[in-house]
């Protein structure tokens, strides 16, 4: 019943924003941070938490460990799932205006989404940690895949992925763009995120449109604001939604 209600809401609205987290990509094989087989339970070999490894200070102090971790968890060969594909289709149909993602895997763009706000950057792009100059991203990725640490061609300092690490602020203008999109939306779909990472999680409170739909396996502190709450796999949910919408 909730699926049908969700589909009706989509049909009513023309300025939809999707706000997503790690759970959107787990069905593509990307490990999330908090599930039973997620990163929190698979990094025991390092002796430190993912937050520490993925911090600004740890990156510069232990780049060898950082890039070993990075290679294992952020360079998997994965493809978009039903959720990514459905969101791209909703954008193509003029319903969905923006995807706001906390993920760094680029799967929304790979599925065809054009207007994507990446709150935490992207795992496949790099710049020098000192001079800021960029180089061929594919070259850097090959160096990392080979087990080496990528260095800047210009000044020999570490190449840093264009992701927001712990201890770092969001990139300039990103939060503002996300909030503006949410403020102007008539429908907000929140999926695959526990809404536990700030400041990103706080963006939801700026929504004042018609409907909020929450698609998440666990409860969030914003569930009491939702018009519909769905506890199923997000890919399956969007698969069902698109079938309903395509028959109307």
Give the strand order of the largest sheet, numbering strands 1, 2, ... along the chain: 3-2-1-6-7-8
Helical/strand content category: alpha/beta
- What is the domain total for the residues? 2
CATH top level assignment of the largest domain: Alpha Beta
Low-confidence stretches: none
Cα distance, first to last residue?
17 Å
CATH architecture of the largest domain: 3-Layer(aba) Sandwich
Q: Could you tell me the strand content as a percent range?
A: 15-25%
Q: Approximately how much helix is present in the residues?
A: 25-40%
Please provide the ordered H/E string of secondary-structure elements: HEHHHHHEHEEHEHEEEH
**How many alpha or pi helices?**
10
What is the mean pLDDT?
Answer: 89
Protein architecture, described:
This protein is of the alpha/beta class and 248 residues long. It has two domains: 2-30 and 80-120 and 172-246, Rossmann fold; 39-75 and 126-163, SIR2/SIRT2 'Small Domain'. It has helices at residues 2-12, 39-42, 50-53, 56-61, 63-74, 82-92, 107-111, 137-145, 174-184, 234-246; strands at 16-20, 96-101, 116-118, 121-128, 159-163, 187-191, 211-215, 228-230. Helix 7 links the parallel strand 2 (96-101) and strand 3. Helix 6 packs parallel to helix 10 (234-246). The longest helix has 13 residues, at 234-246. The two termini are 17 Å apart.
What is the topological layout?
Blueprint: H1 2-12, E1 16-20, H2 39-42, H3 50-53, H4 56-61, H5 63-74, H6 82-92, E2 96-101, H7 107-111, E3 116-118, E4 121-128, H8 137-145, E5 159-163, H9 174-184, E6 187-191, E7 211-215, E8 228-230, H10 234-246
Helix pairs in contact: 1-10, 6-10
């Amino acid at each position: 019943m909730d699926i049908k209600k969700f589909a009706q809401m989509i049909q009513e609205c023309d300025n939809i924003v999707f706000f997503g987290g790690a759970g959107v990509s787990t069905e593509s094989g990307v490990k999330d941070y908090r599930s039973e087989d997620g990163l929190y339970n698979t990094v025991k070999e390092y002796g430190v938490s993912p937050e520490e490894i993925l911090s600004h200070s740890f990156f510069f102090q232990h780049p060898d460990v950082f890039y070993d971790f990075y290679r294992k968890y952020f360079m998997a060969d994965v493809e978009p799932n039903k959720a990514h594909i459905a969101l791209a289709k909703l954008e193509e149909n003029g319903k969905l205006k923006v995807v706001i993602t906390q993920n760094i895997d680029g799967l929304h763009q790979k599925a065809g989404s054009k207007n994507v706000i990446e709150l935490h950057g992207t795992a496949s792009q790099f710049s020098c940690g000192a001079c800021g100059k960029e180089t061929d991203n594919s070259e850097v990725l090959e160096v990392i895949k080979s087990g080496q640490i990528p260095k800047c061609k210009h000044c020999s300092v570490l190449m840093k992925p264009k992701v927001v690490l712990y201890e770092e602020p969001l990139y300039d203008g990103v939060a503002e763009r996300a909030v503006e999109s949410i403020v102007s939306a008539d429908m907000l779909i929140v999926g695959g995120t526990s809404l536990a990472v700030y400041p990103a999680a706080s963006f939801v409170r700026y929504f004042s449109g018609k409907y909020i739909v929450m698609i998440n396996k666990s409860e969030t502190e914003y569930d009491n604001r939702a018009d519909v709450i769905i506890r199923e796999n997000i890919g399956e949910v969007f698969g069902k939604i698109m079938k309903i919408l395509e028959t109307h």
